[in-house]
Give the backbone structure.
Amino acid sequence: DTEVTQTPKHLVMGMTNKKSLKCEQHMGHRAMYWYKQKAKKPPELMFVYSYEKLSINESVPSRFSPECPNSSLLNLHLHALQPEDSALYLCASSQVPGRGHQNSPLHFGNGTRLTVT
Amino acid sequence: QKEVEQNSGPLSVPEGAIASLNCTYSDRGSQSFFWYRQYSGKSPELIMSIYSNGDKEDGRFTAQLNKASQYVSLLIRDSQPSDSATYLCAGWDNDYKLSFGAGTTVTVRA
């Protein structure tokens, strides 16, 4: 069982809908991530939160809006998505990485399979 | 150039054989590398972490790190059909992002 929990597991939404993906971790990690993964491709980084502050935004379109309410929770708000946004959305957490020392791995949730119609 | 390169194409091995997967990286300062296993439609699952030169064994899996040659490898001994999955190599890059290789799909033939 994963210690990073994502809900919902599946989501189908129209292009005019607003929905949110949720992620919760109880590993004591202070870095949390959103990744997008298309079929037969590696995960693609979208956002990184470090100590509840947005530290990396990989030029993601504004129709994706992340939020980190506290150290255990991470949300991804979705609005006016396009069919090409259909993908597996992965949340992950880790200890905060830093230069000059060994860094811990990412621990992934089970993902949300998103279909935009 | 990507930080982590995983160029090996699909790999098909008979049950009981050794599967060998390879990965190279570009940043000599990188110290931490990971192998994830991903079943079709599922999320990546961490199977090995390696930080030091040499070999690290965990059950049927052995990870190898060679910092001089900048490569990381994973050996799966006594391959089982349940090992059929995509294996992703990953390493931290200069910008505190985990860089993933393209993945190697392994099929174990019964």
Observations:
- Chain B has a mean pLDDT of 93.
- The first strand of chain B starts at residue 4 and ends at 5.
- Chain B is about 0% helix and 55% strand.
